[in-house]
Write a structure and sequence with these properties.
The protein is α/β, with parallel strands linked by helices. Helix content is about 30%, strand content about 25%. This is AMP-binding domain-containing protein.
Length: about 1250
């Protein structure tokens, strides 16, 4: 993305800038660090090498050069001569050989022990790897340090006694770890059972370096020359938080000391005060290497003391007349605040105040204020010494004499161009120089991206150094090392400058006049957004400028970028001070957004505030940015306040699809025929002649021919035969209820009667009782006493809409309807007559009811009411003719109130005479194994169930499969297990169920799905003799444009779809365009239309008449082609695909693929999205969610299963995942408690009802995030 208006660099191509020539090694300077230690340890053994301050700010411990040499020799002797037991036979082996890597793990309060251990390793020729002390298992970055030690092959760790005691440990049995290699053993005898327990760390021998034995008299450390062998490994972190080990050779270590000594003019006996981390970078280079190289005295000030007494280093510099102090700009800032100690400070002795982060532009204000304030206390202005460098290059520059500064345009810098700006401009950045190139060094600036080309004089790039003092490789990373340590900058002719290789520093800057180095930021903190570069430090400074002290802590802000939708997005995380209200916080956050937009012209993707002390910190107190980013991306940040702004900062969305001008159905059909595309139409085999008997006649016929044949068995968790019914007993119960309805209820033929029963045989008997009495049953799910508030209004609505004149039920439900609890929710006086079937006298069983007139095939047989997924109450009139359709042999675990579930539960057994095993789903909730054990016990070949039951079995029985197998549960008898549904098949759930229970003998081809809907309860179902159910992968992007494109498994944007079984006999299906009513081709997505003798005959409306919309649903005709056939519109989108499988008739099998409900699709940006696809994406962040639209905004309702503190972590996760996969910006994220999203009886989400609850503020959410 290139901005044509962006400034371009215009200067000359730069040439290398060289530092002063390295001073020749004079007689005064030692040949190596080993010889330096020997020189000062023997010639001036009483001179103090180092001292450390205690928590009171007083020198508590000190070490002389004589002691340092002695202790270092002890460490070297122990490393090279200690033997340990190894292997199964406990053979003695040498602990370390020269060249082995050894970890140095010392806290910031123990620099003297570190000095002894470090120089002990140098004398022994082993390679020290200094790392941070892991105080807890959750310390930021500790895992990465473990990876570094593992990759370096570290087996031994040197530490102090107090540090070792503080390490997190666990105990382990001797069988778990071999005696020879106890990870936590300090004695190295193998007897300790205490193990240092750190994730991803290698098993180490821990050696405490205090109180070591003296070397034998004749032992001396072998002499080491300053050669190319590795002296030590310094760790460096990259942008992603990965820790790499920079290898520094003995020659480079010596050259670095000489260059620093030359630039800083260090002399023997001078005093240095060090506030920095002595384990790496500037602290290590000056206070450990250069100080010993020159025989200086170093005063170490621990970070813990600085937090208590920030002026302690100044007081010590005053007291000891220190000539050098090593600090960070933070220490200067803290020193300015410690005003009560200023009167005792005199910094006249300071020749050099080295500012380690002086290269950071935002250190300038601290440096200027400190210099101005302490000029009155003897500080010379030329003593301020900013520097630059990195672990890879060592020191790049140090200020020595002349200095410079510039006021630059941040807008130009974001385009990598240097342009001078006006002073005091809001969009300017004032820089101070980082000094001159170190002696013996040569610096070039190369482009940040692409080939390593030289920059122009006014162009921003990465600073590279060529010197003898640089590192030469990352340990064990050859490829990455070449790119960093062997850069060959290309000149104007695209040829390398010369034979010398440069090392990339990771610092972004440019060369100013007089050979001064200017640094504007670090590569790890660069945010590359839409082709422009912004420094995280610059954005932090802008954030702090917005009333910072009221809301956030100054040093506790992390700015980083995350990759979302092919670009980097900026995230700001800050620690919020306690006591700030949410309203004030949002006001402050909106001001921050405006400030960043005005000053940097860049949008913020996410701004999060976390409670104080929640961000991961580095050992010396800074914010660990990469760990913060990892927590943000993993959803583990736990913010207290959050503001997402995807609408304002995501500007690279694909263009919305333009809807083409109307093309008529005839033109589409003709075009498809010309292209040779198959037209989408299919039908099942012919049905054969229909039986003239109705269901009641069939039941009577069976009762007379085989009265004792069992039709139904009700199975519950309490009893395998809770209730049974034979042909004769069912007819007897039905006739008793029929007589009861006519005589007690005074009901007339054709009246509507509400049947409100729990699943069971009473329900079936009541249905046939209604047929005996000639009334029309309305089957309604019984309300639950536990959830009366939500279930009772639905019951009341169906009773009212169906115009039922009576309610028939058992005594339990009747009492519930008449109870006080029910009266609180609905008007109990407005119920129609309530009839309890248990009230009917036994004498009525023998009384023959008067026969109603013979029903016509078109008469209403029953009313099928259900709540659709959009929350709409739908009642369908099912005619007598619809029911006389042969069903198959089944065992059932589904709800019996509507659709195919009702037909299977109540009708199919009577029609076909088989034995139905009835298992109410509520019983499976109480006893999850009930369904599978019943099927196994009765060796049922066919079973029907729902997705809810499948999900429950997976959730509850996953760990019990071996136990079930031991108990003899065997599912090899199952020929077909059909999931009854009115939605897209949940392929992943079906596959997971098949795989999980395969060890119990369940065949992979047995589990399949059916498809039915309001207009036709059974359109497709997998038969025992049909081909195996097929699955296809389609392109999700093409599907949004109503096109079907098959792709391979694992292809980008692939979506798995499973067919819904084969078409039932007598069913004809076409795919039609819902707008034009033209017939679609196989390659198009369209509405599934069905023609069948068992279609429903119409919707039952409140007024008892069919509106024009409803008529259209049941008697639709194609606009072109087969215009004579009358179809029912299912309201579901899908497509047909002719497979290569052969049906039992010898024909190629036509597979029906259901994609989703038409009324639920979301038309966004000119494309059609299905909520289930967006929810599938969201399911990777949160277990259960639902999607709908509101005022053209996408609303995602996500159920938070964790603690409430986790709720806000879901907002960026949901927003980013939907943006990445669907190119859609989520407008609102609503985080709710589990089980808030309403489901219908089939386990399908009721998104319309959820939307109504959201609009009427009835969700009681944990958090609502409105994305800006």
């Amino acid at each position: 993305m290139i901005d044509p208006a962006a400034p371009r660099p215009e200067g000359q191509l730069m040439t290398p800038v060289r530092g002063d020539s390295a001073a020749a090694a004079t007689q005064n300077h030692p040949r190596s660090l080993d010889s330096a230690l020997h020189r000062y340890g023997t010639s001036t053994p009483k001179s103090v090498a180092g001292m450390v301050l205690d928590q009171a700010g007083r020198p508590s411990q000190q070490i002389t050069y004589g002691k340092l040499l002695s202790r270092s020799n002890k460490v070297a002797f122990m490393l090279l001569n200690k033997t340990i037991s190894a292997g199964k036979d406990n053979t003695k082996v040498q602990m370390c050989k020269p060249g082995d890597r050894v970890a140095l793990i010392y806290p910031n309060t123990e620099p003297l022990a570190f000095l002894s251990a470090f120089y002990g390793c140098i004398l022994a020729g082993v390679v020290p790897v200094p790392v941070e002390v892991p105080l807890t298992k959750r310390d930021a970055g500790i895992q990465q340090l473990g990876f570094l030690l593992g990759s370096c092959g570290v087996k031994v760790a040197l530490t102090s006694e107090t540090c070792y005691k503080g390490l997190p440990k666990s105990t382990a049995s001797s069988s778990q770890f071999p005696r020879a290699a106890p990870s936590g053993s300090s004695s190295l005898t193998g007897t300790s059972q205490e193990l240092v327990d750190l994730k991803s760390w290698p098993r180490l021998y821990w050696v405490i370096t205090e109180h070591l034995g003296k070397p034998t008299r004749d032992w001396t450390a072998p002499p080491r020359v300053a050669d190319e062998s590795i002296a030590y490994i310094e760790y460096a972190c990259d942008r992603e938080g990965a820790v790499k080990g920079v290898c520094i050779s003995r020659q480079a270590m010596l050259a670095h000391c000489r260059a620093i000594t030359s630039a800083m003019e260090y002399k023997q006996g001078e005093t240095m005060v060090c506030v920095l981390d002595f384990k790496r970078e500037v602290g290590l280079w000056h206070s450990v290497l250069a100080a010993v190289f020159n025989g200086m005295r170093v005063v170490f000030v621990p970070y813990s003391l600085m937090k208590i007494n920030p002026a302690s280093w100044m007081l010590m510099a005053t007291k000891l007349q220190a000539s050098v102090a090593l600090v960070k700009s933070r220490d200067l800032h803290w020193g300015l605040l410690a005003t009560r100690d200023h009167k005792d400070v005199n910094l006249a002795s300071l020749r050099s105040l080295l500012v380690a982060d002086g290269a950071n532009p935002w250190s300038l204000s601290s440096c200027d204020q400190f210099a101005a304030t302490f000029a009155a206390h003897g500080l010379r202005s030329e003593a301020m010494c900013p520097c630059s460098g990195s672990s890879e290059t060592g020191t790049i520059s140090l200020r020595n004499g002349s200095s410079g500064r510039g006021i630059l345009s941040m807008a130009a810098l974001s385009h990598s161009v240097v342009r001078v700006d006006k002073e005091n401009s809001l969009t300017s950045l004032t820089l101070q120089d980082a000094g001159q190139v170190i002696p013996g060094g040569s610096v070039v600036v190369v482009k940040q991206t692409g080939p390593v080309r030289l920059c122009r004089a006014d162009e921003l790039g990465e600073i590279c150094l060529c010197a003898n003092s640089t590192g030469h490789a990352y340990w064990g990373l050859e490829g990455v090392s070449t790119a960093t340590f062997k850069a060959e900058p290309l000149g104007a002719d695209n040829r390398p400058l010369g034979p010398r290789r440069y090392v990339r520093s990771g610092l972004i800057g440019f060369m100013g006049p007089d050979g001064l180095v200017f640094v504007v930021g670090r590569r790890t903190a660069q945010l590359s957004v839409s082709g422009r570069h912004h420094s995280a430090d610059d954005i932090i400074a802008t954030v702090l400028a917005v009333e910072p002290m009221r809301f956030v802590y100054r040093g506790r802000i992390a700015v980083f970028s995350v990759s979302v939708l092919r670009d980097e997005r900026i995230v700001i995380v800050a620690e919020q001070k306690p006591g700030a209200s949410e309203e004030d916080a949002f006001t402050w956050m909106s001001r921050v957004l405006q400030a960043v937009d005005a000053i940097h012209q860049v949008g913020i993707y996410c701004l999060a505030l976390v409670p104080s002390n929640q961000l991961p910190k580095t050992p010396l107190g800074g914010i660990h940015v990469s760990e913060t980013r990892q927590r943000f991306e993993a959803g583990e940040l736990h913010p207290s306040t959050l503001l997402m702004c995807p609408h304002s900062c995501v500007i690279n969305l694909p263009k919305p699809r333009e809807v083409q001008s109307d093309i008529g159905p005839a033109s589409m059909l003709l075009g498809n025929l010309v292209q040779g595309v198959r037209i989408a139409g299919a039908q099942g085999r012919s049905l054969g002649s229909e039986d003239e008997m109705n269901l009641l006649e069939i039941l009577r016929s069976r009762a007379s021919s085989s009265p004792d044949h069992r039709l139904f068995t009700l199975v519950t968790s309490k009893s395998p035969e809770q209730d049974t019914a034979t042909c004769a007993s069912l007819l007897k119960r039905a006739e008793r209820i029929g007589a009861f309805l006519v005589e007690r209820g005074r009901l007339n033929a054709g009246d509507h009667v509400a049947l409100i029963f729990p699943p069971g045989i009473d329900f079936i008997a009541a249905f046939y009782g209604c047929l005996v009495a000639g009334v029309v049953p309305v089957c309604i799910r019984a309300p639950s006493a536990a959830t009366l508030q939500t279930t009772l209004p639905s019951v009341r609505m169906i009773v009212d809409v169906s115009k039922a004149v009576a309610i028939v039920s058992n005594s339990g439900v009747c009492k519930l309807l008449k109870s006080k609890e029910a009266a609180h929710r609905v008007d109990s006086k407005a119920w129609p007559m309530i009839l309890d079937i248990e009230d009917s006298p036994a004498s009525w069983k023998r009384k023959a009811p008067s026969e109603p007139s013979e029903p016509l095939p078109s008469d209403a047989c029953y009313l099928d009411f259900s709540v659709s997924t959009t929350g709409q109450l739908v009642g369908v009139i099912v005619s007598v003719g619809s029911l006389l359709y042969p069903s198959r042999h089944v065992a059932l675990c589904l709800d019996p109130y509507c659709g195919l579930g009702f037909a299977l539960w109540c009708l199919s057994s009577v029609y076909s005479g088989h034995h139905s095993i009835l298992i109410p789903p509520a019983e499976v909730e109480a006893c999850p194994a009930l369904w599978l054990t019943t099927v196994s016990l009765l060796k049922a070949r066919d079973t029907f169930t729902t997705y809810g039951v499948l999900g429950l079995c997976i959730q509850e029985l996953a760990s019990q499969v071996p136990t079930l197998k031991e108990k003899g549960v065997n599912l090899s008898c199952v020929r077909t297990c059909v999931v009854v549904a009115e939605e897209r098949p949940r392929a992943n759930l079906v596959n997971a169920f098949s795989r999980l229970f395969a060890p119990l003998g369940l065949s992979g081809r047995a589990v399949s799905t059916s498809f039915g809907c309001r207009v036709n309860a059974a359109i497709c179902m997998q038969g025992a003799s049909g081909p195996d159910p097929s699955s296809v992968y389609v392109d999700a992007r093409a599907l949004r444009n109503d096109r079907v494109t098959l792709v391979g498994k694992g292809a980008p944007h692939s979506l798995l779809l499973m067919e819904s079984g084969k078409l039932l006999p007598g069913v004809k299906v076409v795919i039609a365009n819902p707008e034009t009513r033209g017939q679609c081709a196989d390659s198009h997505l369209g509405e599934i239309w069905v023609a069948s003798p068992h279609n429903a005959i119409g919707y039952f409306t409140v007024y008892g008449e069919e509106t024009s919309i409803h008529t259209d649903h049941f008697s639709a005709r194609l606009a072109f082609g087969d215009t004579m056939t009358k179809f029912a519109r299912t309201g579901y989108l899908g497509f047909l695909r002719q497979t290569q499988s052969i049906t039992e008739d010898g024909e190629l099998h036509d597979a029906v693929f259901v994609v989703g409900a038409l009324e639920e699709t979301l038309m966004l940006r000119g494309m059609r999205y299905h909520p289930v696809d967006i929810e599938s994406t969201v399911s990777r962040c949160v277990r259960f969610s639902a999607v709908f639209t509101w005022s053209h905004l996408i609303v995602v309702v996500a159920e938070c299963t964790g603690a409430e503190v986790d709720a806000l972590d879901l907002v960026p996760a949901v927003t980013s995942s939907v943006l990445e996969e669907h190119y859609l910006i989520v407008g609102v994220v609503v985080v709710v408690d589990p089980n808030t999203i309403p489901l219908n009886s089939r386990g399908e989400k009721q998104r319309h009802l959820l939307r109504e609850n959201f609009l009427h503020d009835q969700l009681d959410p944990i958090y609502v995030a409105y994305n800006m």
